[in-house]
Amino acid sequence: MRRPEIDARFRSSIRKEVMELYDETPLTTGQVMADRITSLLGSWRFIVSQTIAIAVWIVINIIGWIYKWDPYPFILLNLILSLQAAYAGPIIMMSQNRQTERDRATVMRDYQINRKAEGGVREIITLLKHQREIILEMEQEIKDLHKTMEREGFKEREI
To answer: Is residue 11 classed exposed, middle or buried when 0-12, 13-18 and 19+ CB atoms within 10 A define those classes?
Structure first.
């Protein structure tokens, strides 16, 4: 039966080793910026605020409270969103590539641990087979002794 606290400590130590591997190499300014921008673009705060901003833009231009600087079909808004997507895509990919490298290191570490565990399991299986052979030999010796005792007239003691 697995003990969850041991599994959690084991996983935590693996994560720590992988993070130490990546913490040894300092991040470039571009990598730091890519991570920060990606965390902003991938947040609900950004999605909600951008949705509100777009809705306000459209409402103001449709109703005409202010001079219509971007009348329907909202070409300026479309340009702004296209530029945002053009820059956000590569930045997000940079951040994802770094995460992929980190995941690859974790997978390699897991593979190494699995190989060690496999060796340990094989050793345990070998020891269990050896113990089984010894038990079978002892069982056979007990049967032989029992037969010898029966031939020689020994009776089992009553308790």
So the answer is: exposed
105 with 22: CB under 8 angstroms? Answer: yes
* Whole-angstrom distance, CA of residue 30 vs CA of residue 32: 5
**Element housing 68 (H / E):** none
Question: In degrees rounded to 5, what are phi and psi of residue 62?
Answer: -75, -45
pLDDT digits (tens, 9 = 90+) for 79-124: 999 999 999 989 889 888 888 888 898 899 889 889 888 988 999 9
Domain ranges (residues) in the chain: 4-123
- Whether this prediction's pTM lies above 0.70 is answered by no
**CA-CA distance, 92 to 40, in Å (whole number)?**
10
